[in-house]
Design goal:
This protein is 34% helix and 10% strand. The chain contains nine helices and six strands. Helix 8 links the parallel strand 5 and strand 6. It is globular and about 50 Å long. The protein starts with 9 loop residues before the first helix and ends in a 21-residue tail after the last helix.
């Protein structure tokens, strides 16, 4: 990845141009190149690293969901936190998210794991680290991505109003200090991972997000993921 030739949606490229020119970002790109030269497989593929930004321009952001690493197994990572392609088995955390939407809003649980339609609704599906080595979770935690994505959160907080930040788990909650609570809504709960899902279920974040947006004169988010196949009731 060349720091001088970043392929990212135009509004984000303008907002983040200072970050792309900083030494840490150049070093980040060098690390990714060195990993590739050393034979490491990097997820997601380069053309999807900034996919979350491409699907949700900054002026369209209504909500932000913050993940940690991209998925590190083959064929899973697609540049959107928690989302996987329709052909890939739904990860356990995502299934717990689906269960909460079903409890909170009554929507059927889809059989696929592709939540990219939320991005088109204005949900920035942001991983704090935008890349990871194959089968090595956390492998890019210290190469500069967090400085970059912290800047993203800070830019949204400063330049937008009435955005809902959904902070699930201690890692995401650690981003709270970057957000101006006087003009945004912060919703916190446990992470949807099976290890902590009991602190996630029942949070009502999806209806609370829409209630807040409606109160602020914004269109609510359509959290319903249409599914043309049979619903998953057999697998819940």
């Amino acid at each position: 990845m060349n720091p001088n030739q970043i392929n990212i949606e135009a509004s984000w490229k303008e907002v983040l141009k200072e970050e792309f020119s900083k030494p840490y970002f150049s070093q980040l790109c060098t690390q990714l190149l060195n990993d590739t030269k050393s034979g490491h497989i990097i997820y997601p593929p380069e053309e999807l690293i900034f996919y979350a930004f491409d699907r949700t321009p900054i002026d369209k952001v209504k909500a932000v969901i913050i993940g940690q690493d991209p998925y590190h197994n083959p064929d899973q990572a697609m540049g959107l936190c928690f989302s996987v392609p329709k052909t890939v088995k739904r990860p356990p955390s995502l299934l717990n998210i689906y269960k909460e939407i079903n409890r909170d809003l009554g929507y059927d649980i889809p059989t696929h794991g592709d939540i990219s339609s939320w991005a088109d609704e204005g949900v920035l599906l942001l991983n704090a680290m935008l890349t990871v080595r194959k089968n090595e979770p956390g492998s890019h935690q210290k190469i500069g991505w967090q400085q970059f994505t912290n800047a993203v959160i800070s830019k949204i907080s400063a330049q937008r109003e009435h955005v809902v930040f959904l902070l699930w788990g201690n890692f995401a909650k650690g981003k709270k200090s970057l957000i101006d609570e006087s003009k945004h809504l912060i919703l916190e709960s446990g992470h949807p991972s099976p290890l902590s899902a009991r602190y996630f279920h029942g949070n009502g974040h999806f209806s609370k997000t829409n209630t807040y947006l409606t109160e602020k004169g914004e269109e609510p988010i359509n959290w319903d993921l249409k599914d043309d196949t049979d619903q998953l009731k057999l697998f819940i």
